[in-house]
Structures are given as C-alpha cells and as structure tokens.
Amino acid sequence: KIRNGHEPEFLQAVQEVAETVVPYISEHDIYAGKKILSRIAEPERLISFRVCWVDDSGEVQINRGYRVQMNSAIGPYKGGLRFHPTVNQSVLKFLAFEQVFKNSLTTLPMGGGKGGSDFDPKGKSDDEIMRFCHAFMSELFRHIGHDTDVPAGDIGVGAREVGFLFGMYKKLRNEFTGVLTGKGLSWGGSQIRPEATGYGAVYFADSMLKTKNQTIQGKTILISGSGNVAEYAAEKCIQLGGKVVTMSDSSGYIYDKDGITQEKLDYIKDLKNVKRGRISEYVDVYPSAVFHKGKTPWVEKCDMAFPCATQNELHEEDAKTLVANGCICVTEGANMPSTIEAVAVFHKAKILFAPGKASNAGGVATSGLEMTQNALRYKWTRTEVDEKLKEIMRDIHASCEQYGVEADGYVNYVKGANIAGFVKVADAMLAQGVI
Ligand code: NDP
Fold first, then answer.
1. Which of 3, 30, 103, 220 has its CA 20 to 30 A from that of 173?
2. What is the pLDDT of residues 25-35, one digit of tens each?
3. How many Å apart are CA 115 and CA 153, to the nearest integer?
4. Shortest CA distance to 425 belongs to which of 90, 93, 40, 70?
5. Which family does it belong to (predicted)?
C-alpha cells in the first residue's frame, strides 16, 4: 500500500484478490513465508515510453505508451493494449494483475501483461490512427515477441489498430510471427476471436444458470457498453433466446422495451465500428427506444446483467437496485466493472455473480488458441474454435466451483477464480525459485 498508494485501481484489484487468497495461503504450508502474492503484485518489468506522431494538421502530438510485464511464471506475457485518455500506470497495473489470474484460469500456458497509451482514438482519422499505431510500435517492438510477450486488443484497440501495429512490427523485425493476437482472418487471425470474450461470458453465465436449473431463454437482460465485448455478449444472448433491452456508451444508454434483435444489433455494430457513431443515434432509427443521457442501465428491471464497458461502472447503489428489481445473475464482461462494495451486495443477496477474470477469459483463451494455430501454421474451423471456447469456459466454471463453494453450498465465484488462478501460478513460481 505504501509503495502503490497513488494507484487506486491497482490497490482495489490486489485487495479483492488478497481477501480470498491470503486465508488460503495461511491454510497451505507450502506457500508459507514465500511472499508469493507480494511477488505477483510487483510487475516483473514495467516499460514507459514516449510516442510522438504528427496529426492531420501537421502538429506534433506526444502521448505516453506503456507495457506492464507482470508475470511470466507459466508462459509468455499475454494481455491487451488499451488506447484511452484515462490510461495510466495504475489502470494498466490493475489490468495486468487481473490478467495473471485470468490467463492461469484458461488452462493455457500464458503469463500476464497489459499495455496501452493515453492516446484518445475518438475523432481521429484513419490516417492519424495509423500514424499513432506505427509510432507506438516503433518503440514497443523491442520489448515483445511471440515467445516473450504477445499483446492483443482492449478498449480502443480493435481489428484496425491491431493491423497497423502488426504491420510496423513485421517491418521492423522482418518476420511474420504470431506476436499479436486479434489479427485479421486472412493474415493469421483465428476464427471466433472477435466474438470470444462476449460469447465466452454468455457461455459462463449459462453454466452458472444451469446450477439453478435455468437457461437464458426468455430472460430480460441488461448490457452496458457497445464495443467488442458488449456486441458479442448481446449476440449470443439473442441467439440463446434472451431479450436484451439495453446497450450503452460513455454518453449514456438506450432502452428498447421490444428487445434488441439481431437486425438491430447489426445496426449497432455498423454504427460503432464502421461509422464510429454514438449509441444515442439508435433511437433515430428505432424510435420506440429511449436514450438516457449520461446514465448507466442498472436502474432497469431485469433477470440478468452483463457489465461490458469499463472498470467501476457498477456501484453499490446500482447493485442494490439490481437485486431489488429481481436480477438473479450478474456476469462481468468488462474487467472489474463492479466496485468491491457492489460485489459485496451480490454476495450478500446470494445471487449468481461472475468476476471478469473468470467470465471474460474467453477472449484471451481464444488468443491462446490463435497463438497455437500460428505456431502450427495451421487454421482450425469456426466450429472447432467455438467448441474449444465452450469447453474452456466450462472448465473455468468447474475450477471456480471447486475452490469457491461455501459451507451453505453457495458458490463464491470471486473466491473460486482467485484461488484457482493463484494455485497454478504460485506452484510454478515455487518450482522456479526466488527470481
Ligand atoms: P471497446 O473499445 O470495443 O468498447 C468499450 C465500450 O465501453 C464502448 O461502448 C465505450 O463507449 C464504453 N466505455 C469505455 N470507457 C467508458 C467509460 N469510462 N464510461 C462508460 N463507458 C465507457 O472495448 P472492449 O469491448 O474490447 O472492452 C470492454 C471491456 O472488456 C474492458 O473492460 C476490457 O478490458 C474488457 N475486456 C475486453 C476483452 C476483449 O477481448 N476485447 C477481453 C477481456 C476483457 P465509447 O464508445 O463512448 O467510448
């Protein structure tokens, strides 16, 4: 706390893990005195660098770039890049720390990392995005590699950005390797990678519901965000017969009482990814929907909620409202969208609650499958990758149950995910000695 007092998001993430893992450590002698959790909480390496580029008006712009190489005990560093004005060391350390546990849960050999920049892609031309990505990679390339550190996308970094980043890496290294995941299908990308985080979250929710003999069919569902994770969470919910009534962006949320259909979702995908518009424009095309400016969707009545936008977007009061309105299942698509106080409300009410490090792990898991395909120079079909994703999400659910079940039978998925993720990394660190 003394060393990281100026990093609130990072402290929040470590506190949440420590609350469940420290009691486990104290009950298991092999970890005694090894300071494993303290070691995991210190990045193995943290790189900060200047990114200079020229905007369309010819003016020089300066941003700050980062890569946090958190833990490589079980594999190369792996984790996304975020381009957003709120990016700072605290946010990236929290994301990298979470990533260590998440990647461990996937059962694939991936360590944890995260990176990005305070660059704001909003309102930038394609040429500006390209120049920024090229400038960013012209420094990052010396720190990464397919056996060292394999970045991917996150907020503000989608297929377009991964393309520009990969292009510059390839030029500088003169090699075509799987150094980034989330690549385009025709140049090394995996089937299902764009869909994987959102689909995976819904597969996880489905496993949780099954423990209560329920399904997604007929459920009313709130989703926040309208980016990659939100779009594909919505798509899978719709495919499984759920009624999605909200989506949002940083300007507010739309409520569609008739439910967002696949056709309406296709409009949102085009609006956000191609036209780069705002979610408020939805009501111009579908006037029976309502736009709530500057608000989050948690006040609406629902059976299930999927927070899929950003960290700390769901507060204690929101959690109380959700529970009071009859919500029985909250599945995090984003990383740490619920505050610690909100999670406590869900646990007290004993509703199904999945932390992001378990429920959104499908994205990085499929990135791991992309790395395998690149290494094999082979491609699996869409069905093959989707089946593997389903199996991984079922396994993560089973690991959470194994470590998270409480005396009264309630499954605390936070505890389960933290301990299951910890054990594998901790055992590898023990085996490798104090380094
Ligand atoms: P995108 O950039 O595709 O979408 C982000 C969405 O969240 C947009 O709708 C954006 O709105 C909204 N948003 C961003 N910041 C804020 C904010 N401060 N307040 C309100 N809304 C906000 O990102 P992703 O969908 O990829 O990522 C969403 C979350 O999922 C993040 O927490 C990310 O770390 C996590 N995640 C992503 C994975 C992936 O594979 N992409 C994997 C695992 C986790 P606007 O358009 O207005 O900015």
1. 103
2. 999 999 999 99
3. 10
4. 40
5. Belongs to the Glu/Leu/Phe/Val dehydrogenases family.
* ipTM value > 0.95: yes
The CATH 3.40.50.10860 portion of the chain extends over 43-178
Among protein residues, the one whose CA lies closest to atom 7 of ligand 1: 309
Q: Provide CB contacts within 8 A for 70, sequence distance 6+.
A: 40, 43, 44, 77, 79, 93, 96, 97, 99, 100, 111, 112, 113, 114
| Number of the ligand 1 atom closest to the C-alpha atom of 310 | 32
Structure tokens at 34: 């090894």
Nearest ligand 1 atom, CA 356: 44
Is 114 in the active site?
yes
C-alpha–C-alpha distance, residues 45 and 56, integer Å: 34
State the pLDDT at residue 90. 97
> What is the spatial distance between Cα 233 and Cα 361, in angstroms, rounded to a whole number?
13
Averaged pLDDT score across all residues of the chain: 97
- Domain 43-178: give its CATH code: 3.40.50.10860
CATH code for residues 194-359? 3.40.50.720
The single residue listed with the structure tokens 């993430």 is 13
Q: Provide the pLDDT confidence category of residue 5 given band limits of 50, 70 and 90.
A: confident
Mutation test of ligand 1: which of 235, 310, 313, 392 has the most ligand atoms closer than 8 Å to its C-beta?
310
Tell me the Cα Rg of the chain. 21
Catalytic residue among 78, 93, 102, 114: 114
Question: Is the shortest distance between the CB of 226 and ligand 1 below 6 Å?
Answer: yes
Model pLDDT for residues 230-272, shown as the tens digit of each residue: 999 999 999 999 999 999 999 999 999 999 999 999 999 999 9
Question: Which residues, other chains included, contact 127 with Cβ-Cβ below 8 Å and sequence gap of 6+?
Answer: 56
Strand 329-331 to 352-354 pairing: parallel
Q: Where are the alpha helices (DSSP H) in 261-360?
A: 262-269, 282-285, 316-324, 340-349, 356-359
pLDDT digits (tens, 9 = 90+) for 85-99: 999 999 999 999 999
* Distance in angstroms (rounded) separating the CA atoms of residues 29 and 34: 10
CA 108, CA 91: separation in Å to the nearest integer? 25
pLDDT digits (tens, 9 = 90+) for 119-145: 999 999 999 999 999 999 999 999 999
